[in-house]
Automatic annotation (TrEMBL):
PROSITE patterns: HAMP, HIS_KIN
Histidine kinase domain ranges (all copies): 293-510
Organism: Actinoallomurus iriomotensis
Source taxonomy: Bacteria, Bacillati, Actinomycetota, Actinomycetes, Streptosporangiales
Membrane topology, as annotated: Multi-pass membrane protein
Entry's localization field: Cell membrane
Protein name: Sensor histidine kinase MtrB
Cellular component annotations (GO), alphabetically ordered: plasma membrane
PANTHER family referenced in this protein's UniProt entry, alphabetically: HISTIDINE KINASE 1, TWO-COMPONENT HISTIDINE KINASE
Length: 542
């Protein structure tokens, strides 16, 4: 029958379980993180096992030594008693008074301490249990020992261990030795109280010494480990500060041992790393400055070339076919060159930290429609169709219109270029805190590891493949920076022959922290293929 627990009892048990789990978790975390705890704990466990084994071995040896000494003393006492009894009982059958007197005389020889008791049994009178000293019961002698003594030659001793019982109902462990004297059996019974007390004292002493030894070993292990762990911990802290950007961090070098060599090597590594990083920073500054200067300086001659190219392009119908085609090529390549310069200038602004956000509350669906309208002609030429999955109500968010439109155009152009003529799906979703836009193509996809590389500057999935849409190789890099400027995410997913999906997630309020996205990064149909039972489970839940 199950007895129901009170609500207060259940709450108390729940609190105890939570505290126990928290304590266990804290202990496991400390075990994983602290070399010192592991070394000291291991030392304690190993020393406890060694002390236990040695303690058991010593107790066995001491016990055997005490019992062997007791047996030798008992056999000497028995031999002395047998000699006295033979003299008193050599005349033949004796009356009970004489037998009692023999038992009393032999027992009196044990002294006032009562080192042993004596029992005398007459083999010729089985109806009498025997004669004993100091109220010890004759049945304290085991039947097995009686049979051995009865069948043995005269004066041949036997011994065993058993319980000594007294008339007052008490009992104790004891050593029993016996021999045959004429027609009688004489037994000496030695209580083992003193030996037991001695063993208890020895056991307590071994336990105390073992505990003290374990604590001493743990203290030694803690001290030794401290000398090693503290420098290692300081090295770890220095490495963390170095990784955080504090390139001037150095370790103190003490002595000439292995830890000192570690500190010296760390300092040398930090110095070399600081020097290389400074060199790279200077080189990067020079490179960014060079790109910015070149981009600005090229705009003036490019403007002049653009004017001349526009004149030639407008008058191309008056030229011969070869010259007319040259004017068209000049126009298209100038447009591509202008796009490259614009992208380089935008990248230089991000590198210089000069990019700013001009946020306003806008319906995100409007930005998607404008970006799709700008890309539809290209999609038609490629044989692709852009499918829109937009919510029925306004999806407002505080964003920079120009930057978000640029992100969407870059994603759509990239999807059309790599979509292999298949449909492009644009999805929009929003929740209370964020808005997300996903652009899905069904083209060649990405290989493992390329989902992060796709945002690198000038990176191309297939370097041997020629661009057909005039991209600069900076579009996705700029889009990534635009998303980061909003405090959002731009992420990519792709699998070979499964296409790609790019997801833009932005906070609905400018400056708010983005904690999640309303749209999944991996398309739902791919997730269903990965988990073949998911669809069945959804149907069962429905």
């Amino acid at each position: 029958m199950r007895i129901p627990l009170k609500a207060s009892t259940r709450r108390g048990l729940s609190v105890i379980r939570r505290l126990a789990r928290a304590a266990l978790g804290a202990t496991q975390a400390r075990w994983r993180r602290s070399i010192r705890v592991r070394v000291v704990t291991t030392t304690l466990v190993v020393s406890a096992i060694v002390v236990a084994v040695l303690g058991v071995f010593l107790m066995q040896q001491i016990t055997n030594a005490l019992l062997e000494a007791k047996e030798r003393a008992a056999l000497l006492q028995l031999d002395d008693g047998v000699g006295i009894a033979q003299g008193r009982l050599a005349t033949g059958p004796s009356d009970p008074e004489t037998l009692n007197d023999v038992v009393t005389t032999l027992a009196r020889r044990s002294g006032t301490a009562g080192l042993y008791e004596v029992i005398l049994i007459d083999d010729r009178d089985p109806g009498i249990n025997g004669f004993s000293s100091n109220a010890i019961k004759p049945d304290s002698v085991p039947a097995r020992l009686r049979v051995q003594v009865e069948r043995a030659p005269a004066s041949n001793p036997y011994r065993t261990y058993g319980r000594l019982s007294y008339d007052d109902g008490t009992s104790t462990a004891g050593l029993i030795v016996g021999a045959k004297v004429n027609a009688y059996q004489i037994y000496y019974l030695f209580p083992l109280n003193q030996e037991r007390q001695s063993l208890v004292v020895v056991q307590r002493t071994l336990f105390g010494v073992g505990a003290a030894l374990m604590l001493l070993l743990a203290a030694i292990a803690s001290l030794v480990t401290r000398q090693v762990v503290i420098p290692v911990r300081l090295a770890a802290q220095s490495a963390e500060r170095l990784a955080a950007g504090r390139l001037e961090e150095r370790m103190k070098v003490r002595g000439e041992d292995d830890l000192a060599r570690l500190a010296t090597s760390f300092n040398d590594m930090a110095a070399n790393l600081q020097e290389k990083i400074v060199q790279l920073e200077e080189l990067s500054k020079v490179q960014r400055q060079f790109v910015s200067d070149v981009s600005h300086e090229l705009r003036t001659p490019l403007t002049t070339i653009r004017i001349a190219a526009d004149v030639l392009y407008e008058a191309r119908e008056d030229f011969d076919p070869l010259t007319s085609r040259s004017a068209e090529l000049l126009q298209s390549q100038l447009e591509r060159f202008e796009g490259l310069l614009a992208d380089l200038l935008e990248i230089s602004r991000y590198d210089a930290g000069a990019a700013t956000l001009d946020a306003e509350s806008i319906d995100v669906r409007e930005l998607v429609l404008r970006a799709v309208g700008d890309t539809e002609d290209l999609a038609e030429r490629k044989g692709s169709k852009i499918v829109q999955q937009l919510p029925g109500e306004a999806t407002m968010a505080e964003v920079d219109r120009r930057r978000v439109e640029r992100i969407l155009r870059n994603l759509l152009v990239n999807a059309v270029e790599h979509g292999e003529g298949k449909d492009i799906v644009v999805s929009v979703a929003a929740d209370r805190d964020a808005v997300a836009i996903a652009v899905r193509d069904h083209g060649c996809g990405l290989r493992p590891g390329e989902a992060h590389m796709v945002f690198d500057r000038f990176w191309r999935a297939d370097p041997a493949r020629a661009r057909t849409t005039g991209g600069t190789g900076l579009g996705l890099s700029i889009s990534k920076e635009d998303a980061r400027l909003h405090g959002g995410w731009l992420q990519a997913w792709g699998e070979p022959d499964q296409g790609c999906q790019f997801r833009l997630s932005l906070p609905r309020v400018a400056g708010a922290e983005l904690r999640g996205s309303p749209l999944p990064l991996v398309p739902p149909e791919v997730e269903l293929r990965r988990a073949p039972y998911a669809e069945l489970k959804l149907e069962a839940d429905a």
